[in-house]
């Protein structure tokens, strides 16, 4: 009788434990805590040092500031020309999101809902493109952009960002579109809807979590991208906030309080956006991994 009771309790614990992991055990909480501290502590040090003076950072780099002085942020905003950098970044981010939605959305719809030839070959090609390092395209792309007159323009940089984000976005959006029942398409066509109406009025409203995830990934990538911005932009007035911060940190290397304050100004929009969108972002990635 005791053996049966022991087996029943063991079976109950196994059923209560979430599949595919350690479950809610002290070890899992310990691992998550260590990873959380590893990711959060550098940001905390950055924020704390943004309120210090240069003397305080030199004498006590990991301690608390003696006072919460906001003058560092105002001075960093003014000397780093943050307003101009954020305006240029807004153009790049919005252009990248809209362009990625347009090109990736149409391509993913074609692969998921239409009977195209060589669909598998196109998907394999996109996987290969994703695996290639972007650095190998810089030199030929630079000479091509010079001939096309797109060098030192925000439009040229938006085109590059859209091209970099489109392959991954196509594959991600395809997984959402494949999961939508085809009966909805057939019912709409029976009612007299054309292909554009089916895509915009039936499929698009059902796939908005995928588009939100793609837009967040593309927008964050364009916001923090540095390599192509440094290479393809020459005029200081056109540089985004990431490039402006690089020049600011190189010009004020001894004023670490201002460098930290400028870093906090740049990081705050990312933190706020991710906190507002984290549930939809994680849910979108999880859904994309369980479909198609």
Automatic annotation (TrEMBL):
<keyword id="KW-0812">Transmembrane</keyword>
<feature type="transmembrane region" description="Helical">
    <location>
        <begin position="27"/>
        <end position="51"/>
    </location>
</feature>
<feature type="region of interest" description="Disordered">
    <location>
        <begin position="1"/>
        <end position="20"/>
    </location>
</feature>
<feature type="domain" description="ABC transmembrane type-1">
    <location>
        <begin position="86"/>
        <end position="277"/>
    </location>
</feature>
<feature type="transmembrane region" description="Helical">
    <location>
        <begin position="211"/>
        <end position="234"/>
    </location>
</feature>
<keyword id="KW-1133">Transmembrane helix</keyword>
<dbReference type="InterPro" id="IPR035906">
    <property type="entry name" value="MetI-like_sf"/>
</dbReference>
<feature type="transmembrane region" description="Helical">
    <location>
        <begin position="90"/>
        <end position="112"/>
    </location>
</feature>
<comment type="similarity">
    <text>Belongs to the binding-protein-dependent transport system permease family.</text>
</comment>
<feature type="transmembrane region" description="Helical">
    <location>
        <begin position="254"/>
        <end position="276"/>
    </location>
</feature>
<keyword id="KW-0813">Transport</keyword>
<protein>
    <submittedName>
        <fullName>Sugar ABC transporter permease</fullName>
    </submittedName>
</protein>
<dbReference type="Pfam" id="PF00528">
    <property type="entry name" value="BPD_transp_1"/>
</dbReference>
<keyword id="KW-1003">Cell membrane</keyword>
<feature type="transmembrane region" description="Helical">
    <location>
        <begin position="124"/>
        <end position="145"/>
    </location>
</feature>
<dbReference type="InterPro" id="IPR000515">
    <property type="entry name" value="MetI-like"/>
</dbReference>
<keyword id="KW-0472">Membrane</keyword>
<feature type="transmembrane region" description="Helical">
    <location>
        <begin position="151"/>
        <end position="173"/>
    </location>
</feature>
């Amino acid at each position: 009788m005791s053996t049966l009771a022991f087996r029943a309790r063991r079976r109950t614990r196994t059923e209560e434990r979430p599949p595919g992991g350690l479950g809610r055990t002290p070890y899992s909480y310990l691992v998550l805590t260590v990873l959380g501290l590893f990711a959060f502590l550098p940001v905390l040090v950055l924020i704390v040092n943004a309120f210090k003076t240069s003397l305080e950072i030199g004498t006590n780099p990991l301690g608390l500031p003696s006072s919460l002085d906001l003058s560092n942020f105002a001075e960093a905003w003014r000397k780093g020309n943050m307003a101009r950098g954020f305006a240029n970044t807004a153009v790049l981010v919005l252009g990248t999101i809209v362009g990625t939605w347009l090109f990736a959305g149409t391509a993913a719809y074609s692969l998921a809902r239409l009977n195209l030839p060589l669909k598998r070959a196109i998907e394999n090609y996109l996987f290969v493109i994703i695996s290639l390092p972007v650095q190998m395209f810089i030199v030929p792309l630079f000479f091509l952009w010079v001939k096309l007159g797109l060098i030192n323009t925000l439009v040229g940089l938006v085109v590059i960002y859209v091209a970099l984000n489109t392959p991954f976005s196509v594959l991600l959006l395809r997984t959402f579109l494949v999961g939508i029942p085809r009966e909805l398409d057939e019912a709409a066509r029976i009612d007299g809807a054309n292909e554009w109406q089916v895509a915009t009025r039936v499929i698009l409203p059902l796939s908005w979590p995928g588009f939100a995830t793609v837009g967040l990934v593309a927008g964050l990538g364009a916001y923090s991208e540095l390599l192509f911005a440094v290479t393809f932009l020459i005029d200081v007035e056109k540089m985004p906030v990431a490039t402006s911060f690089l020049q600011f940190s190189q010009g004020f290397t001894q004023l670490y309080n201002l460098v930290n304050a400028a870093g906090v100004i740049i990081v705050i929009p990312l933190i706020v956006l991710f906190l507002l969108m984290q549930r939809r972002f994680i849910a979108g990635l999880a859904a994309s991994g369980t479909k198609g």
